Amino acid sequence: MAAEQMAGSGASVPGSGDGFRGDAEVVHSPPPPPRPLDAIDQDILRMLQADGRASIRSVAERVHVSRANAYARINRLIDDGVIRGFSARVDHERAGQGASAYITLKIVQNSWRTVREELQALPGAAHIALVSGDFDVLLLVHTPDNRTLRELVLTRIQAIPEVLSTRTLLVFEETDLEPRRSSRE
Fold this sequence. Notes:
The protein is an alpha+beta fold and 185 residues long. The protein has helices spanning 39-50, 56-63, 67-79, 112-120, 146-157; strands at residues 99-107, 125-130, 137-143, 163-171. The chain has a 4-stranded antiparallel sheet. Strand 2 (125-130) and strand 3 (137-143) form a beta hairpin.
């Protein structure tokens, strides 16, 4: 199955031009049990998190392995479900999504799967997590403005029958964290 399923959208991905099978999204059946990752695998992951378009040649050079070894390792990481896909980091404000918020939800017990499906269909939903603590679900959304955010919360999220309550936390500023460099680089 592996990376063949990643082909199709034409997005630039690792190794463009040097045989890497890849694209923007990976579709898998349930992954095998996790295998331990060695230092080279960890370095490869850090590199691809920092630059998902890195070529096989540059990955191999930076982690000090052959191109064939780097290629095999990346494909194993994809096959094992460690790498779920390659994507772009977006500046949401510059992309017209100037209002961001974390929304906490309390939901009816045992309704997670139903609520998750409803939340996934929301425009601007970026991340959904089932969590422990004072609330059950944490949702990150990006919307064009506060008016759209308000409508999303009041007319879409609170209309989900299994949602008991919500709290909205506006994001004033956000920073994507870069993967830490390995000691091998």
